[in-house]
């Protein structure tokens, strides 16, 4: 009954923005499939050999998706009760960024520039970030990270200072003759080393340089333990709290054990999440 | 007495499928030794210099094991009370996959094709996975991983999105001139970097590229902490629960401390596992 | 009223050394901006192409900062109630080291030497370490590390012994022909491998060498878990204790849960830190 | 008084084997200094350029230490109440292995062989392992590792199976043309990749190979979390238990908090270790 009182615009809003109705869920699933498909086509079209084989097919497929997403964006603006607020929101900006590069490439002539701009279109990938809407289970992870925020900032500041100091020392020791041509490049080496990535494109050649590199590695090795410790400790606590806060739907008892599946008072099955 | 009432087929079932009788245990141990031996021969025969020295010996050894495993497979089908259910089970399929490649290579003539098919035979390695049957202590690990399942999915989705975004950005910045010939290849680079493997086969050359690579590394560095945190927190909880669930064999008291070796009520030694 | 009784020297002390007054805070913020700016100029001037373009500009900028920091150092000595104690303190030494290399380069003539000494000036980066004064939240991290101190020493001694043993074994197995020209170089390889950095500049070529390298890697892999375990366990405990020590500002109740935001007795909001 | 009743042999035993007397402690410290000095000389003499400069000096230094350690070994045999038990003990064998290679090189003539045997002398490094005697604080770490033993075995078996499977698959996909010349070499690649070392000496070249390598890396990435989780959980528990077991030296109260420094009952300072 209440359903019939909705205007077509309100219904459209329910389908496009909401996930409570069946059509709203279908729309979102279809959207995600469309986003991933357009991404796959974009990735495939970046492979030179494939693009030269099916040039028209890929262009048509890309434009179909661009037009589809444009219609979707217009409909969002139309049915939203506050279109300006939507446009300025995080998802509004991403929705626009997912279609704009295609039109910029279309409007401005000049084949060479078009090629470069087409590559910028890969930023449409940010559209995929919409997926985050579906990941409700990521809450525990995010809350742990938010709690650990300040400790992570302290940690990263220390890492940046260390990397600058070690990079500069390496620049003095090894010098441009051994590939350490400037301090920024030496800092790049220090980051590659301290994160244990170790490309091997810049490598110490002198004995002193190797000794300093060894120190950097052993330091990076032990430093790696700090963020892990921070996040584990937070996550540990978050998981305990999270479970403890769940109330039994029958008798409202809270403070259950982390692995509890049934209420300890009345045996009713507990809900998975808050 | 009850033992004598078993038919030969039932006895065979007890030996081949069971591990409760002495012969059943011996059979399984012999089987594992045979599997590992056949794997070692397969691995050795892949070394070109050794194969050219003892070509006949290795072929004979391989075929002996293939025939042995074939007989074993037929016996399993014969003695199983429900042969079709066995064939369709996980181990049934693996048991068949462990012998089939050898016969496919035998039936179809043509030396070149045979060579390729012989390599597919290395899939027989999956046979070794049977070892898992003996690892009862892996339960705690597996249960922790199962509990952390959803968090790990959330985490891996985030990693995949990040890797696609960073790979595409790198493709725009560095381009085919610096080895980033396509987006899939750039995503491969991003995975190599974010997992801190760092082969060094594809490496940024421009200043902007190096800056983005540094960001990717530092991100990968801190991201590495998340799965560790998840698994540690789950394992921590799992170990507490696991020990707490053990009941004293004498007075049936449960809820012991994780490191308890004796019952806190009556002093009876507690069993190691549930 | 009390404010007017301060001599100009005492006021200067309050501004330069203190952070309690508004001017004191502004001075410290301005100082940090100046330090980071001078560091950026130093890093930029190490890039050969940029330096050749703006040689005078960079020299002038560097000297401006050097003179600024010299005036600051003199003012610190002037207004400090105990100038000698300041000079001998950790920050006093760093403050002097941040200006001295510039003057040493100035006093001694000879262009070649000047170039080398200019590089030593990058040690001025240590000046940035003053940032640590602002990071009060780093206390939990530092206390955890201090508690874990002895375990970390034990761990690092084991790593050093392992690295020496594996490096020496690799020197015997691979030898100078395969790039392992001396034991120190082989130890360098072992550190590169056990920390999972893996530059790939020195790599085993023989079968035996590869087997030993595989063992080293798997060992390094599992060893990596030990410092993480140590720091996580300490941090876990430290965070529990830290929160438990906070007293309610209203009723002075302590022993709150780690995630408590309000006093469990009177509901007053708890302070963030001790 | 009791001291005077000791025979010279018993006194020697107290000095060489014991650490309770002042001379016993001095002897052990001197021994460690001698071991490290002989190791440094050995490491230095492996550097070709240094050895050619001071050939006699290094030979003399090496022989001095060898003779010193030989005298020490003879004295140990002489003063030990049960010389045969000492000889067969772990330290007895290491003590012999630390001097034997030098004499073997001396007795058998032939310069080429001598060179090889001299290298085997680096095994004398194991002598340094005696240091472990001084590291009593390593007990917590060792006990944690012993408790986690079975889980680590399960984990390493899984890693070995994974590495064999992925190595073989890579051998089929990439083949000898792309550097994966045999299954053992491919397994070596899989270990280099899964441990995130990533030398880059063997690297996938085909698209399929890169896809499989990406999978291997992401797997290795998440697998890395498991041993950390195991050791952290054990260490966490071990530290709690360890502290809880300490008894107050005044009132014998146990069950103190992990970070307790004073007895919660009577305020007496608690001992550091059990």
UniProtKB/TrEMBL annotation, chains A, B, C, D:
Species whose genome carries this gene: Photobacterium iliopiscarium
Transmembrane segments: 29-50, 56-78, 152-173, 211-233
Database matches in Gene3D superfamilies: 1.10.287.70, Voltage-gated potassium channels. Chain C
UniProt KW keywords: Ion channel, Ion transport, Membrane, Potassium, Potassium channel, Potassium transport, Transmembrane, Transmembrane helix, Transport, Voltage-gated channel
An annotated Gene Ontology molecular function: voltage-gated potassium channel activity
A GO term from the CC aspect: voltage-gated potassium channel complex
Domain Ion transport, chain residue ranges per copy: 25-239
Descriptive protein name: Ion transporter
Domain of life: Bacteria
PANTHER family, sorted: POTASSIUM VOLTAGE-GATED CHANNEL PROTEIN SHAB (PTHR11537:SF254), VOLTAGE-GATED POTASSIUM CHANNEL (PTHR11537)
Bilayer topology: Multi-pass membrane protein
GO biological process assignments: action potential
Subcellular locations according to the entry: Membrane
């Amino acid at each position: 009954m209440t359903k019939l009182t909705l205007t077509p615009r309100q219904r459209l809003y329910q389908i496009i923005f909401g996930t409570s109705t069946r059509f709203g869920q279908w729309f979102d699933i279809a959207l995600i499939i469309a986003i991933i498909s357009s991404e796959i086509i974009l990735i495939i079209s970046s492979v030179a050999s494939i693009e030269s084989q099916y040039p028209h097919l890929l262009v048509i497929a890309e434009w179909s998706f661009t037009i589809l997403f444009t219609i979707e964006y217009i409909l969002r603006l139309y049915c939203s009760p506050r279109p300006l607020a939507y446009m300025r929101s995080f998802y509004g900006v991403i929705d626009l960024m997912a279609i704009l590069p295609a039109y910029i490439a279309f409007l401005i002539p000049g084949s060479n520039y078009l090629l470069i701009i087409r590559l910028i279109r890969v930023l449409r990938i940010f559209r995929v970030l919409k997926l985050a809407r579906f990941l409700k289970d990521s809450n525990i992870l995010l809350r742990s990270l938010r709690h650990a925020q300040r400790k992570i900032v302290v940690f990263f500041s220390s890492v940046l200072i260390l990397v600058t100091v070690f990079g500069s020392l390496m620049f003095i020791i090894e010098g441009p003759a051994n590939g350490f041509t400037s301090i920024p490049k030496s800092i790049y080496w220090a980051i590659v080393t301290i994160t244990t990535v170790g490309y091997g494109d810049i490598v110490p050649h002198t004995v002193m340089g190797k000794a300093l590199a060894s120190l950097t590695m052993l330091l990076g090795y032990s430093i790696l333990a700090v963020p892990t410790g921070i996040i584990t400790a937070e996550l540990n606590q978050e998981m305990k709290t999270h479970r403890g806060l769940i109330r039994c739907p029958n008798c409202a008892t809270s403070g259950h054990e982390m692995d509890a599946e049934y209420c300890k008072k009345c045996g009713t099955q507990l809900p998975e999440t808050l």
